[in-house]
Amino acid sequence: MPTHQLAPVASSLFSLLTITSLLLSFVMLGSRWLKNYLYAFAAQSWAVAGLSAAVAFYGGYPELYFVAALTLLFRGLVLPYLIWRMIRRLDVNREAQEFLQPASALVAGALCVVFALAVSYRVATAFHLEPPVGLLALTVTLSMALIGFLMLAVRREAISQVLGLLVIENGVFLGSQILAPGMPLLIELVILFDLLIVVACFGVLVGYLLTRVGTTRTSSLNRLVG
Amino acid sequence: MTGWLLAALLAAPLAAATGCPILRAPRPCEALNLVAGAVSFACALPLPFLLGGRALFYWDGYVILDRVSAWVVLCTAIVYFLASIYAVGYMRLLNEDRRLFRFYALFAGFALTTLAAPLMNNLGLYWIAIELTTLVSTFLVAFERAAESMEAAWKYIVIVSAGISLALLGTVLFYWAGSIVLGSRYQMTWAVLAGAAPQMNPVLLTLAFLLVLVGYGTKVGLAPMHTWLPDAHSESPAPVSAMLSGALLNTAMIGVARFLGVARSARLGALPQLAVVAFGAVSLLIGALFIVRQQGIKRLMAYSSVEHMGVVALGFGFGGALGVAGALYHMLNHSLNKSLMFFGAGSMMRAYGTKDIAQIAGVSRFFPSEGALWLAGAVAITGAPPFGLFLSEFTIMRAGLKPAFSWAVGVMAVLLIVIFVGFMNQFRRMYYTPDPVAGAAPAGRVSVWCAVPMWLSLAPLLALGLWWPAGIWNYLTSIAPSLSPGLP
Amino acid sequence: MSLRDILLQIAQVAAVLVLAPLIQGVILQFEERVQRARGPGIFQPYRDLWKLFHKQVVVPQTASWLFWAAPVVAFTCMLTVPILIPVLTNYPLPLSDMGDILGGGLILTLGSFMIILAGLDTASAYGGIGSSRATMVAILAEPTLILVFVGITLLAKSMLPFVVNHLLVASWAAYWSPAHLFLVAAFFILLLVETDRMPIHSSTHIEVYMIEEGRILEYSGPLLALLKWASAMKQFILYTIFCNVLVLPWGLSIEGTALGALGAAAGLVVKFVLVGCVVVFVETAQSRLRFYRYQEPLAASFLLAVLAIAGTQLS
What we know:
Chain A is mostly helical.
């Protein structure tokens, strides 16, 4: 990407889609209802798929159209559907207890963004990052990874932890589309299918959690200590 | 020739994994898995000898067979073979015959992915192989459908997947750094990355390396990312624990070692090595602290794995021909030894019906031969001579005696002594308690299927401790330059 | 310092003074109409002010000099701020370098602060409730407001609102830049909070929800009229900052002619009606939050302001 001179329209479009996905991860962080997380995640996957298509169009990487279509299908439709089925089967609707109130989580998320910005700045000043979209992409990728970890840490519901993981993966995908769009097609496809398998495994495990442990609240998974 | 061996090595567990769901009966599945294990071992054993100086590439450059991968594949195949023998006896004790075919299918699949991972030349494929090992082994950990197993499996998959996604981020950043030098489309293999490393941006490479270290370090079980390890290794059935400790941790460690080699080629200064050494030292510390006060027999072994992976990390961090050779030798010895320990622990657990160390007493009285084997293994795993781990740890300490890292050697020495005392104390409680606790006479016996692998793992351990063959020495010391081709 | 500029300055203040109740009336009328009631008509605030100015002042025995001073100070502050911001013209008028964006914000806060003190002055229970709740909302909202102003400053690299206005009119990229959009979103939430719209709606006389009304409960007659007018003017000023500085910076008089000024005033009314529609729509779609959940929209606003500041660093 740094070797390209992006048209201003392309640059704005990339910025818009990148920021939309960051905002959606904040929506996930600040909401109390599991269904809201899920819809925000689906919307975020669509934004990332749209970004992939935009990179394919403006950057001249035709294989990325295929990746974008598959991302839309799998990350945007199939994964949310699988998780929706999990939620419906488990009949949980909201986080009754969190470690951190949504408002405080939003503030913590803002601090994550500032940290990610500081790190990206350090990296970018080391070499001239031609379109600022690259710097934005690196910041958003690191922030989404940190926000995903924040969600993993402060949520007590198993499904929310799965969604936190998927946010991290979305962030990495976003970063890879803007920063490294020439990654071989094989790798991108296999990572995508791998994600599908991961969520399927999570679904099975959540089922086991429910039947064997009796609850999907991870705060009650405290038998193994020491 | 090596191509055929490699193909057979991978085809055998694949056949077992696909054959077990078809067969469905427990005894044929055991036999199929055992045969697959034997075939894998037979194919892996000659590989290091058949390799010359240069690496071999198969499948359009996607599979690499160089000295490092051949060595790690050998360690994995040994553990797979031994664990397959042990599993025959152990799994019969679980009374899960109806579901046993699933176990063997997953076990063979796990072995397949663990054998395949070190052979991957492409960074992305390596990541995928590691992710697949996580997914398959999660269901193995959850095999005994108790609440504790579910908890352990959940922690395992969440923590390790989160860590691995960090590693993916690091890989993407490595690719980006490479694309600035090499153009936006290129094949991301270890050799290409190491070759282009000197021209890549150092700040970006440092960030990417740290992400990869933390990410794959989670999989290796380096502290403080080790929190999944005691749970997963203690709640899974004993053959699976042996595979997890003896085989899986090595394959993830190889990734860290290769990335460290790339970082050294790029001449990033002392930070990458210092980071690896620091993680290794913290792992030793955590291992030592938790071993001393441990109450569960399998958790004790799991923390010992944390400690030994810390030692391996120290070896790779110290670097140089000596450090890398010591670390790789340590991998082999640790695989053998940890399998022995888990086999013993599993047998004792089944015999006494408990996981608590306090309730296991009088082992030397009730189980003379297996007990002696297990005690020998305990002495070995704490790094005492004349066993192999002593030699490898000594080599690593020699490698660390540079001015930059001598503090780490001191820390390592002190903590190894602490671990020796703590570990031996636990075993003293189990073996030599003066008054046996009432009603502690164990109900079970240890079957021959369980005892044989213990003999088979102790013998090479003793042999390798008494004699480090010159051939292996030359083999291992030649690996360090190959990991960092950019350095003179 | 021509006569025309001085007249324009006076015209700006006069526009705020005269048009503020109109906007208040329009918004209340929209609210009623959306809820399918008839509404009192858009000129009702004028009639209320007229009525109040003709009533007697009743002063509680426990009141002090603050009781008389607070409405006057608040009213004066609200008259001062229009001098500093672009209301009718998009070039700075003579006295507008008296204060920059931050100064304008501080003067607005001074007005609110005086009214909070006045609520405490009479030692009535409702005054105390209103003042303490108003202070809590202020503690949550003021830092975010400061951050929004910092963001605006970093966006235009200047502390004068006029420069921001010029930048947004001139450059399409700056208008659609992420930093600007985040600032708009953050300021919109603050607008809802400061003008007491849902989800913090508090212009009721019900004790449980009383914030605004509690503070001014003891006032009557012309003093009450001044307070109500001041709150209407504060709303007008915030809308002015929102529209003329951030969202709809067009339609201001460039040359400064009389016709231009009149056109700008009319344009102002049109812009405010638009924003008012959006505000009423947002308000009707939500219900009031519990008091302890006021931190949530304000945390979101804080977050957006931080993202805006991060956005200014990224481009």
